[in-house]
Amino acid sequence: MYPYFRLATEFLRFRKAPKLTITDTHVTTLRILPGDIDPWKELNNGRTLTLYDLGRLPFGARTGFGRVLKARNWGLTVAGSVMRYRKRLTLFKQVELRTRLVGTDARFIYIEQSMWLPDGTCANAGVIRSAVIANRKMVPMEQVVAALDSPELPELPEWAAQLFAAESSRPWPPERG
C-alpha cells in the first residue's frame, strides 16, 4: 500500500521549512517500518523507490517546482531509474534521505536520491529520469525551464548521460522468451 500517511507527514514537517532553489538538496529522516521490509527482513527494493517519493515530492514543493506543475496542469512521470544497493536496511533503521537535481537534457529531468546511515555510510542510491507531461505528451524542456523562472538548469553530468545512454541502447520491447 502506498504510504499516504507518511507522505502527508513529510509535507507537514516541511511546510514552514525554508524554500530551496532547484539546485539545492532536500534532506529528510525516515525510519524503516514493518510495511517496508520483505521476507528477508530488509527494506524491499520496490519499497525503496516508493520511499524515494517521500523525498522527491517535498523537494518539488520546497523548490516551487510542484506549484509550476500544478499551475500549468502538467504532470511528472518516472521515465526510468538506475539503482545501486550497497547496504542492507533492516527494521527500524533510521536513514537520511537526500534528494537533489542532477541535471537535465533535451527531454528529461534527472533527480539523484540516496539513503544514508547515521555513520555516514550510503546504503543505496538511484537516479530517477522524469518527464514533464501534459495531455499525454512530453513538455519540451525549454518550456519547463522558462516556467521555472530560475537560472539555467545544470547540464546532465557525463557519468549520468553515459548511464542512461547505455540504458537507452537496450532493445525495447524486450524479447518475450
Q: Can you tell me about this structure?
A:
The protein is built from 5 helices and 6 strands, in the order H-E-H-H-E-E-E-E-E-H-H. It is of the alpha+beta class. Strands 1, 2, 3, 4, 5 and 6 form a 6-stranded antiparallel β-sheet that branches. A hairpin with a 2-residue loop joins strand 5 (122-134) and strand 6 (137-138). Helix 1 (4-13) runs parallel beside helix 2. 23% of the residues are buried.
List keywords for this structure.
single chain, 177 residues, alpha+beta, Thiol Ester Dehydrase, Chain A, 6-stranded antiparallel sheet, globular
Short description:
The protein is α+β, with helices and mostly antiparallel strands. 31% of the residues lie in helices and 29% in strands. Helix 1 (4-13) packs parallel to helix 2 (45-63).
